[in-house]
Write a structure and sequence with these properties.
The complex is a heterodimer. Chain A is mainly beta. Chain A is built from 4 helices and 28 strands. The chains are: A mainly beta, B mainly beta.
């Protein structure tokens, strides 16, 4: 039985610090300025012994017991999803596809904190982060719900969002991104040609003009291996030491020389640890709920409880 | 916008009515759920379960699940996640014809409801994903009449859009 869920009320407190819409006053103004954020963002109830875990397959936040694997509650239902970066981060975005009320949130083991709330007519999704800088894509909608264009923003240390680039129309669908050093690479999908173009822009210079890096790609997935940009054809990631079979749920830990992939094999959901050196699978485990990497330890949250792997030995 | 269609397939005309151990007819049943997808098109989740049949000391049900995107967008991936369960006792076993194998309930004489979840994904641009197999309860005398249940969660990602779209059908 799934326990009742509760709405995040932190946005009432914090959105007044971070958004112009909420900045003018106390709680009554905040409630009227951004009611969707307060009502739509959902975190699961957290029973004793449980902690929050992001489930990337379902794109849900779950209340998880590391000892038993029990999932007591989830953020699931309606049109609400959590969105994670393709690299390690505690930042996520969450919102309802139809009702919106999007927020950037920081997920800890036992709390979810609102970092910044998007405007009521906007949705916000992770684009790229290196653990210090965090870039997002904002989709803007009109009153009828039709998309009006997108823009790339960077989260500032004060909790604001600096605009880096703006796009309009169906030929400029900003898709995926990755940070390589101080360069932000991002892909733009043109639905009329069914192709992606990759651009680069200095990550510390919002006013810089983007440069075209690659054109005519089948997929917009972007990754990095140290200082090297990796691209994908939708099934295989290439450009690095080897080629890696990974369609979408791929996380590169280049400092550990490891790629973590969540995929199906036959009718089973697997987490695989893949050596970047040769593209071979070093470890695989089924029943995955989520995972974390701390230093060289991989902790996989499974349906049977936490299982740990030493990534240093896997990479060897 | 969610359009939900539930239909019970009349068993007599199709010749699929099977008398269960308790005399209750076990008809085929199916469910469709259709939702609109951001950027255009619709996603349909379907689950179909055939009538109960006996084979030796077991009960069997054919089933099929599918996820179908109808629209002009290019599909990044489309998948079905389905769960089939039933209530059993006395160490009876349950399987749904997938590679993960079956499960066995405890030795107790009270009914225990267990389920198996399986996954199928197409990431090659296909606009549908489907699976057909057979669920088996054994031995049949330790299956609780009418307790079989199932859900199919269809999800699609389309090119250029971050948001997934999901539809759930259940029987």
């Amino acid at each position: 039985m799934i326990a009742p869920r509760r709405a995040v009320l932190l946005s009432l407190v914090l959105c007044s610090l971070f958004t112009a819409a909420c900045s003018s006053g106390g709680a009554p103004e905040s409630e009227s300025a951004a009611p969707a954020s307060v009502e739509r963002v959902v975190v699961p109830a957290l029973p004793a012994g449980h902690r929050y875990v992001f489930n990337p397959w379902d794109q849900q936040l779950v209340a998880y017991d590391p000892a038993t694997g029990d999932v007591a509650d989830t953020s699931g239902g309606r049109e609400l999803y959590y969105y994670g970066f393709p690299t390690a981060s505690t930042l996520y975005t969450v919102g309802d596809t139809v009702e919106r009320g999007f927020e950037v949130v920081e997920v800890g083991e036992h709390e979810v904190t609102t970092v910044v709330a998007a405007a009521a007519n906007e949705a916000i999704f992770p684009l790229a982060t290196d653990g210090v800088q965090a870039f997002f894509v904002i989709y803007a909608y009109d009153e009828a719900g039709a998309e009006q264009g997108r823009r790339i923003v960077r989260l500032t240390t004060e909790g604001g969002l600096d605009t880096f680039a703006s796009f309009s129309g169906p030929s400029e669908l900003v898709d995926k991104g990755v940070l390589v050093g101080d360069i932000l690479y991002y892909s733009v999908y043109d639905a009329t040609t069914d192709q992606h173009t990759v651009y680069s822009i200095p990550a510390k210079d919002p006013g810089a003009a983007p440069a075209v890096v690659l054109e005519g790609l089948e997929s917009g997935e972007l990754y990095a291996d140290e200082e090297v940009l990796l691209t994908s054809d939708g099934a295989t990631v290439s450009g690095g030491e080897a080629e890696y079979a990974c369609a979408s749920l791929c996380w590169f830990y280049d400092e550990l020389d490891i790629l973590i992939r969540i995929s199906t094999q036959e009718e089973e959901l697997l987490l695989s640890v893949i050596r970047m050196e040769d593209g071979n699978v070093a470890d695989a485990i089924s029943g995955v709920v989520g995972f974390e990497v701390h230093e060289s330890t991989l902790r996989v949250h499974t349906a049977s409880g936490d299982v740990t792997f030493d990534l240093a030995s896997d990479a060897a | 916008m969610v359009v939900r269609l539930r239909r019970i397939i009349a068993g007599v005309g199709l010749g699929v009515v099977i008398a269960t151990a308790t005399g209750i007819p076990a008809s085929a049943v199916s469910d469709d759920t259709r939702v609109s997808v951001p950027g255009g098109g619709t996603l349909t989740s379907n689950i179909w379960r055939g009538g109960q049949s006996s084979s030796g000391n077991t009960y069997k049900w054919d089933y099929q699940v599918s996820a179908v995107y109808s629209g002009s967008q290019k599909v990044t991936s489309i998948r079905s996640t389905w769960t089939l369960g039933s209530c059993l006792k006395n160490s009876a076993s349950w399987s749904i014809g997938v590679s993960t194998g079956g499960i066995t309930v405890g030795a107790g004489s009270s009914w225990q409801c267990k389920s198996i979840t399986a996954y199928w994904v197409n990431s090659n641009g296909a606009k549908s994903a489907s699976w057909r197999s057979t669920a088996v309860a054994a031995p049949s005398k330790y299956y609780q009449s009418g307790s079989i249940y199932g859900t199919n969660v269809a999800r699609v990602y389309t090119k250029g859009y971050a948001q997934p779209k999901e539809a759930t059908a259940s029987v």
